[in-house]
Design a protein that fits this description.
- With 182 residues, the chain is mainly alpha-helical.
- The strands form two sheets. It has a two-stranded antiparallel ribbon with strand order 1-2.
- The longest helix has 24 residues.
- The relative contact order is 0.11.
């Protein structure tokens, strides 16, 4: 659990290698969630091949991105392993490391789980087709302005980037609500 430096939005922060490893699992989960969303009928930005999707008994033509749904779920296991390690080390007095004999199992489990997540994600990525027409039609909707507005809020209002994106989402939801009512 040696400390290493990883970049963040303000420079560098100190973290442990295991925390960095955990972030990999969380980012893979986020990627999986986006790909699941992008395969939905509402978006249809990507279409997975038959080798990385399953049908449905009710709708056999539907291609469910099951591997990426599993990747999303596996991140919870890695987060649980981190909680196990934190709980294990929280009460250790100095120079007493006998309790650390229990740290191997969650570390090895996390390594095995994340390697599996990487393998599944890579296989899925190699077996999808991007629906360029559908993506092109979605671009004029204006949602790309989120980063422009967030940059403005960060630079002019001096707020943090994540808070600026939340403000954008709130404004967007209000706009959508007004449009639906009209």
């Amino acid at each position: 659990m040696k400390n290493v430096l990883i970049p963040d939005e303000f420079g560098f922060q100190t973290t442990t290698r295991f925390q960095g490893f955990l972030l990999s699992a969380v980012h893979l989960s986020r990627l999986g969630e986006e790909w699941v969303l992008w395969t939905s009928e509402e978006f249809e930005f990507i279409t997975p091949s038959d080798s990385v999707s399953t049908g449905s008994s009710i709708m056999p033509q539907k291609k469910n991105p099951d591997p990426m749904e599993l990747v999303c779920g596996k991140s919870a296991r890695v987060i649980g392993d981190l909680v196990t390690l934190l709980t294990l080390s929280k009460g250790l007095p100095h120079a007493y490391n006998r309790d650390l004999q229990e740290d191997k199992e969650p570390v090895f489990d996390s390594v095995k789980t994340i390697l599996g997540m990487l393998e599944v994600s890579a296989e899925f990525a190699l077996n999808i087709t991007f629906n360029r027409d559908r993506i092109q039609k979605a671009l004029p909707a204006g949602h790309l302005d989120a980063t422009t507005l967030a940059d403005y809020l960060v630079n002019k209002v001096k707020t943090c980037y994540s808070l600026a994106l939340w403000w954008y989402l709130i404004v967007l939801m209000l706009y959508i609500t007004v449009q639906v009512q009209i």
